[in-house]
Amino acid sequence: MEREDLGALLAQLMRRVMEAERPILDAQGLSMWGYAVLSRLADQPIQTQQALAKAIGYDKSRLIPLLDTLEQDGLLTRQPDPTDRRAHTIALTPEGTARLKATKSAIHTMEEDLLAPLTASQKQTLFIALSRLKP
Amino acid sequence: MEREDLGALLAQLMRRVMEAERPILDAQGLSMWGYAVLSRLADQPIQTQQALAKAIGYDKSRLIPLLDTLEQDGLLTRQPDPTDRRAHTIALTPEGTARLKATKSAIHTMEEDLLAPLTASQKQTLFIALSRLKP
DNA sequence: TATTGTTATACTCTATAACTATA
DNA sequence: TATAGTTATAGAGTATAACAATA
User: Fold this and answer.
1) Residue A91 phi/psi, 5° resolution?
2) CA distance A135 to B70
3) Is residue B62 situated within a structural domain?
4) Distance in Å, residue B79 CA to nucleotide C2 C1'
5) What total number of domains does chain A contain?
6) Is B7 on the interface with A (CB under 8 A)?
7) CA–CA separation, A87 vs A90, rounded Å?
8) Which residues 66-95 of B are in CB contact (within 8 Å) with A?
9) Distance in angstroms, CA of B127 to C1' of D7?
10) Is B61 on the interface with A (CB under 8 A)?
11) Does chain B have fewer CB atoms within 10 Å around its N or its C terminus?
12) CATH code for the domain in which residue B37 is found
């Protein structure tokens, strides 16, 4: 058993990151999944709620109450698609964009802090490796 | 928003790893947490169940039925500590050690396969970085 | 009084299947 | 009939508090 499990290493770091994110998200009034939704919406336009659910790895049935909350909070809008009235197009409001930007900024600051033990080169390689390995 | 979130990258890779581990663990008749327990026990001796729970990030109350199963499967033994009869010392059986070894070997093979897109140097840096960042 | 292991219980997260309205 | 969104519900995972035995 010469090296540690990749899974165990990822799990440990993941837990650290999530613990550090929680107070930031709380302060911004966002859940982890709410943040995932806003991030994905800012990334590029998305057609259906099902596509959104799949993109962030969330179940479509759980997505409904989450979108309800985000809509009530004025962070996004849901509108029936004129070309297919079953579908709803989802769009960030200006407030949603602003909230996302503030949250992402605080999270990146936290992450840089957490990454401080690494050299610039190690940090760069870490992000390259993770990006290359994701599906 | 110049770079991706570390948390999102970790989550995506974590999901991939866990999906790839599931069939291996199923074939070995182990749950994810059962594997975590065996791994930790093989690492170095541990005094109390509470210490074990904390070490793997599991709740002490949930640990009980998990240890029950592993004990029934003949993979570990629980014996009252003679010096403190409240405490139980936990030890891997030879079968537990063998099962762990076979599982870890299969998981590492899978991981190497998954890590194939990286150069040897990137792979090495990834493990160094993850090890350095864990708590 | 404090601690180890245990049990019971409640709470959250997640997935499945069934419903509606459109296509 | 098939699909988008929705709802209801069951199941798994998780945490909290209370208990017995021992220190």
Assistant:
1) -140, 145
2) 33
3) yes
4) 22
5) 1
6) yes
7) 10
8) none
9) 45
10) no
11) C
12) 1.10.10.10
